Amino acid sequence: MRQVKRALPGQCQALLVSLIVCAALIIQSEQQVGDAKAQRRHEPIEVNTPEAANVRSPRSVFHVRWNPNEKFIVESRENPAINSSKLAPHPRLKVSKNTKLTLSPKLYLCHDKHSELCHNKTQQFRQRIVQTFEKAMTESVNESDPNHYNVDYKPVFGDSFEEQYYPSTCLVMEAGVRVLRRKDEPFNKLPFGRLFPRQKLFRNIRNIKTCAIVSSAGSLAGSKLGRFIDTHDIVMRFNHAPTEGHEVDVGSKTTIRVVNSQVVTKPEFDFTRAPIFRNVTIAAWDPGKYNGTLEDWLTSADYDLFTNYEIYRRRYPKSRAFLIDPHSVWRLWQSLQMFAGNRAIRRNPPSSGFIGLALLLPHCPQVDFVEYVPSTRLNGRCHYYSKEMNSACTFGSWHPLAAEKLMALDMNMAEDDDMSVFQFGILRIRRPDKLLCGFNFFGY
Ligand code: NCC
After folding, report:
1. Which domain does 363 fall in, by range?
2. In this structure, what CATH number is given to the domain that contains residue 318?
3. Which cysteine pairs are covalently linked by disulfides here (predicted)?
């Protein structure tokens, strides 16, 4: 859980009362669930290093302090990440950085989860990863944030909080990330809206027990997590990330692909014909502007995904291809900013990975997010399917990726907690109990 400190003006007293009731409910609920993880968060980290002495017991990952004596593990250079004449100039590329990994993750690798040495190595690795995310967050906003999307964020509660406790999973759920439906305005009046499938996003939702989200991170290479991934009822992948030739590491089952509008639009991805986009559910997204209407979006999407979406849907009328509601993408951004509290996050949409998590969580009691928060397999590669070395893909340069991953880490409920995340690469997120959430911050 997260803690935000601000001043409290008088007009919010009623709100405060409901907050206190809710906080009591939350605490009670947590106790009922017997959440051992929450307890562990309040215990001091037992790491036998000088740095560890400086680290306060974290209430959330945001409360682990950056230690200025520790060498920052990622070097940044301002070269573009991709140098391809095929790609149109776009702000996403302009701010990309080529970053080189200088940490040696292998030093922290271990498997004996019962040994103290392994426990300590894992805690040290966690610390370095969290510090890197923290540093990336503080660097991210001022230097190169042109506010391309006209983000005009006003904190939902203004400066009205003394203290606020709210589980991160609830914040994600309340963003209500969703796909557009035929009945949604203005699509109910437009011929384009009739292209949306009548079916729901997932079939037989009651039978869904476990879901895997497979990040495209380079650290999946050599992981041998394929069999584990394939045991899940739903497997989510991103963009054009392949399974063929990588089955041992990433599995072969795909239920849904979340694809960004570049992938839908650019000829090199061949969205309307490539086999990789067939016989799976597709959830395509484009952010539009922060306060833009859906009508605006239809004419000013970042990349015009509508044309290829229409071709695809007409060519395969039985397909399950959906468009994600861009308003819900920005609500997710707001959830992320609320989690970050008074630390401004980058004013660009979340990555497909985080959007995918928010889309899936309401449908799935347990989500295993694979190699999203990097494990000791971290190798500096951008993707498991390419040789490009670029740590910015992992630590963020354009999306508010560092904040996303800190928030995801805050949601982790894996049994072995840090061992699971940092040694095995699996972060487990449980859908929160309805009693725990229900604030409806966004009132949509
Ligand atoms: O790289 P990308 O992401 O397709 O990765 C999918 C999701 O996996 C997680 N990821 C990826 C690499 C890495 N080292 N660590 C990770 O955690 C992220 O959650 C990511 O969202 C995207 O989010 O859609 C993105 O798409 C690419 C690119 O458009 C597509 O791969 C198609 O080429 C973007 N790269 C560029 O625009 C240059 C990337 O910024 C975001």
Report:
1. 1-444
2. 3.90.1480.20
3. 211-364
Q: What is the pLDDT of residues 300-356, one digit of tens each?
A: 999 999 999 999 999 999 999 999 999 999 999 999 999 998 889 999 999 999 999
Closest ligand 1 atom to 397 CA: 40
Residues 6+ apart with CB under 8 A from 118: 110, 111, 112, 419, 423
Q: How far is the centre of ligand 1, averaged over its atoms, from the C-alpha of 315 (Å)?
A: 27
List the strands of the sheet with 366-370, edge to edge.
321-323, 281-285, 256-260, 234-238, 210-214, 366-370, 426-430
For 61-119, how does the pLDDT look when each residue is reduced to its tens digit (9 = 90+)?
322 222 222 222 333 222 222 222 233 333 333 334 445 667 899 999 998 988 999 99
Compute the distance between CA of residue 165 and CA of residue 18 in angstroms, rounded to an integer.
12
Residue minimizing CA distance to atom 19 of ligand 1: 353
Residues with CB under 6 A from ligand 1: 81-82, 92-93, 215-218, 238-239, 260, 262-263, 351-353, 372, 382-383, 393-394, 398
Q: Whose alpha carbon is nearest atom 33 of ligand 1?
A: 263
Structure pTM?
0.82
**338 SS3 class:** helix
Identify the residue whose C-alpha is closest to ligand 1 atom 24. Answer: 352
Q: Domain tally for the chain?
A: 1
Look at ligand 1, atom 22, and give the residue with the nearest C-alpha.
Answer: 352
d(CA 255, CA 280): 5
**Residues 228 and 250: beta-carbon distance below 8 Å:** no
Partners of 370 in beta bridges? 214, 426
| Closest protein CA for atom 29 of ligand 1 | 262
CA distance 259 to 305: 10
> Ligand 1 center to residue 393 CA distance, Å?
7
Ligand 1 atom showing the smallest separation from residue 259 Cα? 24
Query: Distance between CA 444 and CA 439 in Å, rounded?
Result: 12
Residue minimizing CA distance to atom 20 of ligand 1: 353
